[in-house]
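Mods, move this if it's the wrong board.
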Amino acid sequence: MYLVHTELLHRKAELCIPQNLADLLRDLARPDDGVEHVVVHPHPGRGVTVGVYLLSDRLREAEETAARLCGRAVTEIGPLSGWAVGRSEAPLLAPYDLDGVMDH
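Not the wrong board. Structure tokens:
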């Protein structure tokens, strides 16, 4: 299982983050995404960090899956129209490029 942080960004000062965003994201997840749990951490005036816990064989695959899920969210969840998907990476591991290590 991996935890991936994906940024959802918007520059408006008055953000309209749905109260049930974690539930909406879980509902958008497809069975083959391997999503186990979703948490949302708001950053007023900037956006949110979405924590996606998911089952995956590889770190890079987990990061890409979380980014795709958030990409679907900004397309399909009305209040997120105009938002952008930022970085999508596992915390602490991404700066060290440990993907090759984790694949063995």
